[in-house]
Give the backbone structure.
Amino acid sequence: MSALRVVHLVEALGVGGLERVVQSLALHARRHGLMVEILCAVRGGPVAAEMEAAGHRVRVLGVTGYRPRDLLRAARALRDMKPDVVHSHGHFAGVLGRAASWWAGPPIAVHHLHTTDTTLCYRHRRLERFLARLTHRIICCSRAVADHARLDLGIAAALLAIVPNGIDPPPPLDRDDALERLGRPASPIIGCVGTLAPHKGQSVLLRALEGWPSGQVSPTVVFIGEGSERPALEVLAAQRRNARVLFMGERRDARSLLAAFDILVAPSVEREGFGLAALEAMDAGLPVVASRLGGLPEIVEDGRTGLLVPPDDPQALAAALASLLERPDLRRSLGAAGRRRVEERFRAARQAEQIEDLYEEAIRARRAA
């Protein structure tokens, strides 16, 4: 039998959790003998360039919406690519990909939900419900995302499959080298990795510094990531006169830099579908302090691999961070437990195998229909 042909359809391949998941799935699928191509609806990006350098074929459509001419353009591309499965990621690519798959003909349509986006307007939620009829399976990266799909989007539970994100083992970690690349900031160091966006809650971390316990050394806070919120965060950081705050921008070596941190913070507010940065920190042996929000409690076990705090609560966040910095023994035990949890439950190879099994199930179901 010929190898299964899969097209991953995304809006773009910049830098972020969704993009890294697509990159990982494509890598493991190719190792398992599948034929994989990437179709970027709007534009490419840094991850697209990395994937091309690794030998993946990446196409860019350059569409700006999902009007009939955009759908026709996508359908023509899919007819040319001849996939068995079209696996779309995110709302925009999901609309374009599923509609174009239906227009193009026989491909199995699989859609991947990566977040609990409650900002979708009624029209978009209604569109998601309609497109569910054209979808063979909807993959959710966490139980929180599956609940969102069922309760907020109105998608039937039978269509949903929960497949947690996974990561490959970390690169070699060296604390001294990581500190050197960060410019040797003063200890203790609290890291925060992710796009600088309002829903990621970096401002909550900065506000937590205001209530730092007197008599305890104020930490250095290191932000790794870029985004629209950076100017506002820089203003907020400048107002913390006794705080040391570093903005490192977007770094492709972020996982190696984790070795410099004493704690990783995931202070998301409003929504968080999974929390890939928290998972990578656990894999590096770091304790994680995270918001009790979305998919984060499915990763971080409160009191076992880290601490959970209410979202948008600077005082609770400050107290949790201070308590961990006072107890290096607890940080070590939480970090060790986190590493074991990732190894047991959150490896990328396991995620890829589960998703590839869903492809095969959908194909068998269609043949039997």
Summary: Residues 175-345 form a domain with the Rossmann fold fold (CATH 3.40.50.2000). The chain has two domains: 5-168+347-368, 175-345.
